[in-house]
Amino acid sequence: MRGEATVLHADLDAFYASVEQRDDPALRGRPVIVGGGVVVAASYEAKARGVRTAMGVQRARALCPDAVIVPPRMEAYSAASRAVFEVFHDTTPSVEGISIDEAFLEVGGLRRIAGAPVEIATRLRERVRGDVGLPISVGVARTKFLAKVASAASKPDGLLVVEPEGEEAFLHPLPVERLWGVGAVTAEKLHARGIYTVGQLAEIEAATAEQWLGRAAGAQLHALARLRDPRPVETTRRHGSIGSQRALGNRPHSGGELELIVTQIVDGLGKRLRDRGSSCATVVLRLRYGDFTKATRSRTLPAPTDHTETLLTVAHSLLAAADRDIAERGITLIGVSLSHVTRAGTVQGELSLDWNEGARTDARLDVALDAVRDRFGSSAVTRAALIGRDPGLSAPRLPEHE
């Protein structure tokens, strides 16, 4: 007995672009690209012409000359996300946000008061469309993994239910790239051994998958292929890190440009920390080089902080340490994460030996700038070095909804 399909994966369609089309009727039905130098998001009309996220805007223009290009409006996307999550929480108390535009919902205990899962999913989609004005796709299945695959298969603006008795028929014909954790490198390893579909991976022994892909990755992917995913919807999970990243395209970037991008990212993350009433102890720099290999560099602070200048100093030093690798290999993506995040009051304060009026001034400046941005928007005040720069940051790596 496999149980019932009670897990919903709800995923907003082309989220940023859909918000732009919602807010400007002239954009509806037209190809829309959100971004500056790099495509941050694209509407389905633009995607149909070959436009993809992280593509350079020049390349996107060549593929879709009639596209409308708009700058990102992060405040609008955050407000839309909050409104959608209100619908989620009105639907069920069991909500696990996994990004700004998607979440898992467990509705197994609601049949007597709210109906079958497919009925709940139908009403959820109607409410998001009616209350927030956005299209959303929903997958319903017995496990989180299958629900996520189902929502992707239902896009755009669809609903797909995978009943327990139909799981193998649904999953096994799909390409192995649909499995969580299968990127280009893993797919190439599997293809080299004649494994192209999820069903073919399920047919081999777990030990063979572990030998090919490594013990942990092989075991996890083999379990998913055989429909084993025991993870529940985690309604009380708190994330230990927050972060943002930016796709850069393939053109060369100077050290000064990269430093400004890191500054822009850290400015936003510092405010998010303070809005949460949190501090962080570790700064992590994430890089993807021109050859598509990835690297991370991190530094742990003597004491947790939420001061932007402190975080910037560390992030810039990590970037400087990677300068030689970047020069030799190029760079296509850069991101910053703040980890070991703790709530204010949960960490013993530490009086630094160099604590002085300058440090206190920095803290007061952070608070003053936050207040201005809260009232007038994030672009109301900015660093002189960032004036006129592309604001096209990607969506937060981790969700605001906890």
UniProtKB/TrEMBL annotation:
Catalytic activity: DNA(n) + a 2'-deoxyribonucleoside 5'-triphosphate = DNA(n+1) + diphosphate
Location of the active site: E102
UmuC domain boundaries: 7-183
UniProt-annotated binding residues for Mg(2+): D11, D101
Gene Ontology cellular-component terms listed: cytosol
GO annotation, biological process: DNA repair; DNA-templated DNA replication; error-prone translesion synthesis; SOS response
Entry EC no(s): 2.7.7.7
A molecular function (GO) term: magnesium ion binding
Main location: cytoplasm
Transmembrane recorded as keyword: no
Cofactor(s) demanded: Mg(2+)
InterPro entries: DNA/RNA_pol_sf, DNA_pol_Y-fam_lit_finger_sf, DNA_pol_Y-fam_little_finger, DNA_polymerase-Y, DNApol_IV, PolY_HhH_motif, Rev_trsase/Diguanyl_cyclase, UmuC
Superkingdom field: Bacteria
Cofactor note: Binds 2 magnesium ions per subunit.
UniProt keywords, alphabetically: Cytoplasm, DNA damage, DNA repair, DNA replication, DNA-binding, DNA-directed DNA polymerase, Magnesium, Metal-binding, Mutator protein, Nucleotidyltransferase, Transferase
Protein's cellular compartments: Cytoplasm
One Pfam family per UniProt: IMS_HHH
Site (Substrate discrimination): Y16
Region (Disordered): 232-251
Similarity section: Belongs to the DNA polymerase type-Y family.
Role: Poorly processive, error-prone DNA polymerase involved in untargeted mutagenesis. Copies undamaged DNA at stalled replication forks, which arise in vivo from mismatched or misaligned primer ends. These misaligned primers can be extended by PolIV. Exhibits no 3'-5' exonuclease (proofreading) activity. May be involved in translesional synthesis, in conjunction with the beta clamp from PolIII.
Subunit structure as annotated in this protein's UniProt entry: Monomer.
Protein name: DNA polymerase IV
